[in-house]
Inverse folding.
């Protein structure tokens, strides 16, 4: 960053894992950067919680102690979410057509937050800052990647927050600016990130 570090930032944001503990990563950050990201973190926490529901105990606590309180407290957050709701037709098991509510997933929000997570974890593992002129590309994955594939098995694996956040990464031995990252949030959400020249490659 440009400004001197005056505080520590959790990567990933600790607010995504309310009520959980264990091996959180922190990296130095300037106060304005850390505080400036809190709005994105709170908003993304809501969407993660809405998508995963209460499938695990950690997900249940995330809603009850985090996302639900945020949406009650912030009229701006409520309005932003409500503006994305829409009715879509669904076919029931008896072949009747009904309507259900869906909401738009804020892909750009995921990308902003997980670019920051990627840069933070890069620093945590390498001890060096990934320059702002180095590209980071973040993709949301549909479905579960093949963790038994040779490429993914070769990645170094870590867990945070009692297993609620898992990630794997690999670093180019010839140029550590080129890395790949695989993230799993609350045992449901999968994201993939690449940095450097690898940011132009497709998963």
């Amino acid at each position: 960053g440009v400004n001197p570090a005056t505080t520590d930032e959790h990567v990933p944001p600790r607010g995504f894992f309310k009520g959980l503990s264990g091996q959180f990563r922190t990296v130095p950050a300037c106060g304005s950067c850390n505080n400036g990201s809190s709005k994105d973190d709170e908003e993304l926490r809501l969407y993660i919680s809405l998508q995963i529901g209460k499938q695990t105990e950690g997900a249940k606590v995330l809603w009850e102690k985090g996302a639900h309180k945020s949406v009650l407290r912030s009229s701006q957050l409520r309005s932003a979410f409500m503006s994305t709701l829409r009715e879509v037709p669904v076919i029931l098991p008896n072949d009747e057509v009904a309507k259900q509510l869906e909401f738009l997933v804020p892909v750009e929000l995921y990308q902003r937050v997980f670019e920051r997570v990627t840069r933070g974890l890069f620093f945590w593992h390498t001890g060096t800052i990934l320059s702002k002129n180095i590209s980071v590309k973040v993709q949301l994955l549909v479905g579960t990647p093949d963790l038994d594939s040779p490429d993914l098995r070769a990645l170094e694996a870590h867990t945070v927050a009692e297993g609620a956040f898992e990630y794997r990464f690999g670093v180019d031995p010839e140029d550590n600016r080129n890395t790949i990252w695989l993230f799993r949030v609350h045992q449901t959400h999968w994201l993939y990130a690449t940095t450097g020249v690898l940011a132009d490659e497709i998963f």
